[in-house]
Amino acid sequence: MARHIALAFLLSLLFCAQNIAYADFDCAQNIAYADDCAQNNAYADLDFDFYYLVLKWPGSYCKDCTVNGCCMPTTFTNYPLEEDFLIKGLYTYSDSGQAVTKCNTTKFYVNALRNLIGDLYVHWPSIKCPSNNGVSQWRDAWTNYGVCSGLSEEDYFDKALKLRKKINLLSVLKGHGVLPSDFLFYSPLYVETAIKVGLGADVGIKCSTNESGKCQIDEIYVCVDKTASKVINCPVLPKFICGQIAYLPTFSNSMLKDTSSCFDPHQMVTCE
């Protein structure tokens, strides 16, 4: 097993050295297409059939050339982040590949999440600049997708947190020799296969281009059954296209900028 992993590392590094320019070109050229494919029309009159649990890698977000770095959540002092995948969303979708959103106008109440708030601060934070506490993105998740789930607000977010923990994606990747590193490059197909072996189901991988023009693994789309308890093969795989090689950038809390001075804790929103 160790020899297999070492060989995979060596092949990845050799492939990177020989093909990095071509791979970066591929990644940059296809990002717009990949993003377009992710934006399916939403229909509130459709029943949803499955969820996409979308997990994002913070190291890639911090180095993405399309964002202005990453910022420390205002809750960071009491709830520092881990070097792990973060939840981006739990999306309701139909088997035809259409997002099912805004099924009703049930309001979002942050107090309904009081039993989950610590876990949400750590595992479903906002690291977008300027700094904020994550509440606005939880509200968006609930009013767009949670209201279509048939779950209570607390259950919807609890399901997402439990799925992230159960999947343990970073551990799956490390078990197959895919490590956060600024120097190790992998075939996205190898990464996808490693996750499929680990989870027993296929996934979608979304890449982005960092400030150095390198192709990086950005988000993983895991399909989950309608009960939000079991990982399944995707009825529809998102049509993202990565380059021939990509990497998982290292992440540390030192990468997070502090813009908390532009935050009004009384309003629980960021300053404009």
Shape call: globular
CATH class: Alpha Beta
Query: N-to-C SSE series?
Result: HEHEHHHHHEEEE
Q: Structurally, how many domains make up the residues?
A: 1
Work out the oligomeric state of the chains in this entry.
single chain
Low-confidence stretches are 1-25, 28-42, 262-272
Indicate the mean pLDDT.
83
Sheet of most strands: 4 strands, antiparallel
The rounded distance between the terminal residues' Cα atoms is: 52 Å
State the total count of DSSP E strands. Answer: 6
| Helix-and-strand structural type | alpha+beta
Question: By CATH's scheme, which homologous superfamily applies?
Answer: Ribonuclease T2-like
Compute the gyration radius: what is it? Answer: 19 Å
Could you say what the CATH topology is called?
Answer: Ribonuclease Rh, Chain A
CATH hierarchy: architecture:
Alpha-Beta Complex
Beta-sheet strand percentage?
Answer: 5-15%
Fraction in helix: 25-40%
